[in-house]
Amino acid sequence: MNVGIIGLGLMGGSLAKAVKRYGIAKKVYGFTNSEKNKKDILDLNLVDELVDLETLKKVSDVIILAIPVDAIISMFPNFLDIDENTTIIDMGSTKEYIVKNIPEKIRKNFIAAHPMTGTEKSGPKAAIDDLYEGKTVVFCDLEDNANIHVNKAFRIFQEIGMRIVVMDSSQHDIHACYISHLPHIISFSLANTVMSHEDPKAIIALAAGGFKDMSRIAKSSPRMWSDIFKQNRKNLLAAIETFENQLNEAKKMIEDENYEVLEDWMKKANTLHEIL
Amino acid sequence: MNVGIIGLGLMGGSLAKAVKRYGIAKKVYGFTNSEKNKKDILDLNLVDELVDLETLKKVSDVIILAIPVDAIISMFPNFLDIDENTTIIDMGSTKEYIVKNIPEKIRKNFIAAHPMTGTEKSGPKAAIDDLYEGKTVVFCDLEDNANIHVNKAFRIFQEIGMRIVVMDSSQHDIHACYISHLPHIISFSLANTVMSHEDPKAIIALAAGGFKDMSRIAKSSPRMWSDIFKQNRKNLLAAIETFENQLNEAKKMIEDENYEVLEDWMKKANTLHEIL
């Protein structure tokens, strides 16, 4: 089959590499409206051909949207004339708002997916060979899709080495919030805590593994994450509150010098790793 | 020289491996009062000999304290009769409270150090070959030490591959708080946020790199960290507050749907990585 990928940054670029490597795509077509990225995409040989959107729509059996979640919504009108056999898959980090807004006309073709993988980097140069290998992809609300499209999507993601999980888009957004969106807000907050100190350089000079791990995702793209936080706003606000309550509990125990209770609280946190 | 190590978990066990590997120690003696660990220490061949405390004091040119920070304080009375040529080095994560409590009689011998390295694991089996390699060790308040002891300490830590930084213990505690103690409280809080959800398993099933990194140090020893939080209580409470303010700022921007300002806030967080 021919695969068309819209957006060739970390996610789209890595997918292009994967579908080529596993011989899933006869040809990989790409579309980007970032002039800045075009040269990198060609230099890195990520796709067989960069084409305009109308061409991509015509030549692709599957179209993958690997662009920020707000851009996915803006793209919808472009697909209203798509062939009924063409599968469209979005890979956005939020699902409920996207699914709600898929135009009725393409609802059967449009598969809502979220590959649970990534790095803090972005752009075509961030694309890596094995981003999807051994990771999990969540598909949402498949009951509204035609089987031909579900099967094509399953085939692609399974053949590049992913484990498939299906759930409701509303359930997905809560899960993704805890596992990804909340950790991002926390990491950004930690980075800004240090950056707001009078001498961040002196502090960072001592940084070891723990801090590096905790601040890594604070390097992520503000453009992309702003849209995600917007689309998952309600869940995120609730999750921040739950986290704030936990942190406050710890603070109170330290204030009150309740160290035995604090140890129990940490022991509870340790149990996460029994199921992680 | 002969090196005596008190406590042979992650830090002490890894140090034993390093001083042997680099041929710094003629013999490595160990002392632990954990019956449970004795077998592991011998099975892993971490030291040449496990001895009682009085023997260790007599045969060692350098004694390293690799035990929780409160245990370091409790150990002081045992060293009052130490030979003036014997160097004692503590490797605790807090420094101000320890330095303040060093008995006058051994102040010249007692070097306050903090190697900025570790993993989330603990116990003799957690000991690894290259824990110290290429990392930074902070020495505090060296003006109160005799040169013979400073030089011995420098020699050991440099020869196992560490970079030396010196600073006041009060300054150290602020830095360590931002770089290590605050990130630990945050990671424990994040772990407990997920564990307090009705179905943590379902959430964790989707965990990818970001969440794993953010929650890794929530696996750390509650016993050890309770003491650290106690000894660095004032700085930690202040740092938690600064972090809470940052998180609150983010929450407010999301509540008010001020996404452009939120993007600027994230861009500021991105700048951390220009100096990390």
UniProtKB/TrEMBL annotation, chains A, B:
Residues 1-276 form the Prephenate/arogenate dehydrogenase domain. It catalyses: prephenate + NAD(+) = 3-(4-hydroxyphenyl)pyruvate + CO2 + NADH. The keyword Oxidoreductase applies. Pathway: Amino-acid biosynthesis; L-tyrosine biosynthesis; (4-hydroxyphenyl)pyruvate from prephenate (NAD(+) route): step 1/1. The keyword Magnesium does not apply. Residues 233-260 form a coiled coil. Gene3D superfamilies: 6-phosphogluconate dehydrogenase C-terminal like domain (1.10.3660.10), NAD(P)-binding Rossmann-like Domain (3.40.50.720). Keywords: Amino-acid biosynthesis, Aromatic amino acid biosynthesis, Coiled coil, Isomerase, NAD, Oxidoreductase, Tyrosine biosynthesis. Signal peptide: none annotated. One of its GO terms (biological process) is tyrosine biosynthetic process. Its EC number is 1.3.1.12. GO terms for molecular function: isomerase activity; NAD+ binding; prephenate dehydrogenase (NAD+) activity; prephenate dehydrogenase (NADP+) activity. Belongs to the prephenate/arogenate dehydrogenase family. This is prephenate dehydrogenase.
